[in-house]
Design a protein that fits this description.
The complex is a heterodimer of chains A (about 250) and B (about 425).
Chain A: E1 2-13, E2 16-28, E3 33-37, H1 44-52, E4 57-66, E5 69-70, H2 76-82, E6 84-87, E7 94-98, H3 99-113, H4 121-134, E8 145-146, H5 152-166, E9 170-174, H6 182-195, E10 201-205, H7 210-214, E11 219-224, E12 227-232, H8 235-243, H9 246-253
Parallel strand pairs in A: 3-10, 3-11, 6-9, 9-10
Antiparallel strand pairs in A: 1-2, 1-4, 4-5, 7-8, 11-12
Chain B: H1 3-17, H2 22-38, H3 54-57, H4 73-76, E1 87-92, E2 95-96, E3 109-112, H5 113-118, H6 123-129, H7 138-146, E4 151-155, E5 165-171, E6 177-180, E7 183-188, E8 193-202, E9 207-218, E10 223-230, E11 236-247, E12 251-258, E13 263-273, E14 278-287, E15 292-301, E16 307-316, E17 321-330, E18 338-347, E19 353-362, E20 368-376, H8 380-387, H9 393-409, H10 415-428
Parallel strand pairs in B: 1-5, 4-7, 5-8, 6-9, 7-9, 8-10, 9-11, 10-12, 11-13, 12-14, 13-15, 14-16, 15-17, 16-18, 17-19, 18-20
Antiparallel strand pairs in B: 1-2, 3-4
Helix pairs in contact in B: 2-7, 8-9
Classes of the chains: A alpha/beta (about 250), B alpha/beta (about 425).
Bound molecules: adenosine-5'-triphosphate and magnesium ion.
Magnesium ion (MG) binds near residues 44 and 174 of chain A.
Chain lengths: ~250, ~425
């Protein structure tokens, strides 16, 4: 589904081109769950943003294929229409736009891009009700301005609600677990698992093994200074949590 | 001949046609003298520093239309808020159009200035109110000198006017360039409530300059909601001079939806002559091209325990320019005043400019006064966030801008106006909003 080959990406940091991703290789197939772990600043969110189409990052080398199509020239919204979803590490507040109106717009724009009619209001309401129940989101919440004044945990839960509404093919969850208490974590993980199927895939970015107890990965990758330096099964996550990253750094330097 | 000279000589002609009315003639003569002395304002004056009238004054305007023009309702229906039942006072090239209007004398007067000026039964009222709150500045004076037509509204006490009143001024373009000077007088007596919608609309590409004066008297406990919809052609310029005199416990609000014309200057003045008065001034400005919109507000707090709320949002694209100059005066006696002012702007083009300036003159010591102005760009992170949800760039921009101006719309009490303004905003931003508001 997603094939990343030798991906290099930089950002203009006050006039200086700063290289962040330095040759990423990653393949995610339909039906799989992958996890990426790595120290702060290693480039995890950057990788997620580049895949989602953030234009501030310049891809200097390599390719990103989504269902065998090179998506380099696609805008973020076009990638979304093709089924890529990013749950933000830091969801953005949009004052003045309610959660409901935001979702209506997102769904109808996606349908429009696919040549479909707008979703009938009744159907939309039903979908919203169903998905908000799945994530145990209070209905009152939906009429509030998107993310404005939401607690950290509420924001994350709202991200997964959006994911549930949009039913993406590839969901990238960037530290969705941070800020969630144990009950919320279970609800969010449960939501993600309900949406899992053999036709879609999930990429989880996290620092903790905790979430991976619920969303069990098929592969765990370690991102260090812009490169994936080690991959393994779910037991690698345990090892990282116990031992930290130094032993991997040593392995890399050796 | 420049416009000033043309106006001065036209006044002599105008004066000769007037009926013998010593009172009004004195008022007019004083006014033309004031205009003659002051002339049109120039950028040298502090209040006009960022707005030059030069490009507007150079046209060769007809001061009086040569003929009476008629238009069909169907051709102009879209300029009304037509899905509500309302009183209508309609002018075409400055002349009253009875067949497009719907006025009343039933328990209240919703009619014409020309009638009020000429009929004896209105005389006392005219002498009590006409030109009593308008300032003697050059443009209001010019209007006073030529004043002959406009809306005259008098609501006696304890009346809820059930239907909003729409005042519409059309210019047909049958003259190559025309100058219009409508004059409105609105008196709302004790404990009465009225809603008014005003619009100026050019129907062709010929130049129009409107120098309008509206005097509003909100007497004790009166409630006045006034909506100005400005969305004119690029050949049409408007100088709107509105003066509101409030008596104790009255509540007055003016919403100005400024989608521009060529040049628009809104001189909006509130005078709080009594205790426990509430004044609201709100505006949304969305312009592009080379449009210019200038909001020049004054709230004069004269007595204690009053409030004023100002909230102006502006979105400026292409080569447009905006000005916000908000003055608040709090007299020494006006203790416990609460005065708020906010002016927030987004520049969507690097060629657009906004000049924003609060002016506070506070002479009382026990007051709450807050003001703030911001100028920013659209939030890139928010844009990216929305786009990852499948909302295209243009729609994402529109949604952000709509959200930005939403605050101002939330205080609009007539849903049909809200819908109309939302439509205009969507139209301006070139999108179809995918949800109901
Ligand atoms: N807009 C930017 N301008 C300059 N530097 C940036 C920008 N965005 C990211 N970086 C830098 O790129 C590097 C990688 O950042 P990134 O956010 O991808 O890290 P991360 O692995 O997600 O870290 P964390 O675990 O803290 O979330 C960091 O050094 C960061 O400072
Ligand atoms: Mg990160």
């Amino acid at each position: 589904m997603l094939k990343i080959k030798n991906l290099h990406a930089s950002i203009d940091d006050n006039g200086v081109l700063k290289s962040i991703l330095k040759g990423i290789n990653l393949e995610i197939k339909a039906g799989e769950v992958h996890a990426i772990m790595g120290p702060n600043g290693s480039g995890k969110s950057t990788l997620a943003s580049v895949v989602a189409g953030k234009e501030e990052f310049e891809v200097t080398k390599g390719t990103v294929l989504f269902n065998d199509e090179d998506i380099e020239d696609l805008a973020a919204e076009e990638r979304a229409h093709k089924g890529i979803f990013l749950s933000f590490q830091y969801p953005v507040e949009i004052p003045g736009v309610s959660v409901t109106n935001f979702m209506k717009t997102a769904i109808n724009e996606t349908r429009k891009a696919k040549g479909l009619e707008e979703m009938p209001a009744k159907e939309m309401l039903k979908l919203i009700r169903e998905k908000s129940e799945l994530l145990e989101i209070d209905r009152k919440f939906l009429s509030r301005s998107l993310n404005e004044g939401f607690s950290g945990g509420e924001k994350k839960r709202n991200e997964i609600f959006q994911m549930a509404m949009l039913e993406p093919k590839l969901a990238i969850l960037d530290e969705t677990d941070s800020g969630l208490d144990i009950d919320a974590l279970r609800i969010v993980a449960n939501g993600v698992n309900k949406l899992k199927s053999k036709d879609n895939a999930v990429l989880v970015i996290t620092h903790y093994q905790r979430l991976l107890e619920y969303i069990v990965p098929d592969f765990v990758h370690v991102l260090l200074d812009g490169r994936i330096v080690k991959s393994g099964g779910k037991e690698l996550a345990h090892e990282l949590e116990e031992k930290g990253y130094d032993w991997i750094k040593e392995e890399v330097n050796a | 001949m420049d416009l000033k000279e043309k106006l001065l000589s036209s006044f002599l002609v105008f004066e000769n046609q007037l009926e013998d009315d010593a009172y009004m003639n004195d008022v007019r003569n004083d006014a033309i003298t004031a205009f003659e002395e002051k002339g049109f304002p120039t950028k040298k004056e502090e209040a006009w520093k960022y707005t030059s009238l030069n490009s507007v004054l150079k046209e060769d305007y007809s001061i009086f239309p040569k003929q009476e023009n008629a238009i069909e309702f169907n051709d102009i229906k879209k300029y009304f808020i037509h899905d509500i039942d309302s009183y209508k006072i309609v002018f075409i090239d400055g002349k009253y159009s009875s067949h497009l209007s719907q006025t009343t004398h039933d328990g209240m007067d919703i009619c014409l200035m020309s009638a009020a000026m000429s009929k004896p039964k209105y005389r006392l009222h005219i002498e009590n109110y006409f030109n009593k709150v308008a300032t003697k500045d050059s443009l209001p004076s010019l209007n006073t000198a030529f004043s002959s037509e406009g809306a005259y509204i008098h609501i006696p006490k304890n009346k809820m006017v059930a239907k909003p009143i729409q005042i519409l001024h059309f210019s047909t373009g049958n003259e190559s360039a025309i100058m219009l000077q409508p004059r409105n007088l609105i008196v709302i007596d004790e404990n009465s409530h009225v809603q008014i919608i005003e619009r100026h609309q050019s129907l062709s590409n010929n130049a129009v300059l409107t120098n309008s004066v509206t005097e509003i008297f909100a007497n004790k406990r009166a409630i006045v909601d006034y909506y100005k919809i400005q969305n004119d052609n690029l050949n049409a310029s408007l100088i709107d001079n509105t003066f509101i005199n409030q008596k104790r416990e009255s509540v007055a609000s003016v919403h100005t939806f400024a989608f521009g014309g060529k040049l628009v200057r809104n001189n909006l003045n509130f005078y709080q002559n009594g205790e426990r008065i509430d004044s609201t001034l709100k505006g949304i400005t969305i312009i592009g091209d080379k449009q210019h919109v200038d909001h020049n507000t004054l709230v004069h707090h004269i007595e204690p325990n009053c409030e004023s709320h100002q909230d102006y949002k502006g979105i400026f694209g292409e080569n447009s320019t905006g000005v916000f100059n908000g003055k608040i005066i709090v007299n020494k006696e006006a203790q416990k005043t609460n005065a708020f002012q906010a002016n927030n702007n987004i520049l969507v083009s690097d060629k657009a400019t906004i000049n924003t300036k609060p002016q506070l003159e506070i002479f009382a010591d026990d007051v709450k006064c807050s003001h703030g102005c911001t100028i920013g760009q659209l939030d890139e992170t928010a844009m990216f966030y929305m786009r990852t949800r499948g909302i295209p760039e243009k729609e994402a921009k529109a949604l952000l801008m709509y959200a930005f101006s939403n605050n101002v719309l939330s205080s609009v009490k007539i849903p049909e106006i809200k819908q109309r303004i939302t439509k205009i905003i969507a139209n301006k931003l070139g999108v179809n909003m995918g949800f109901d508001l």
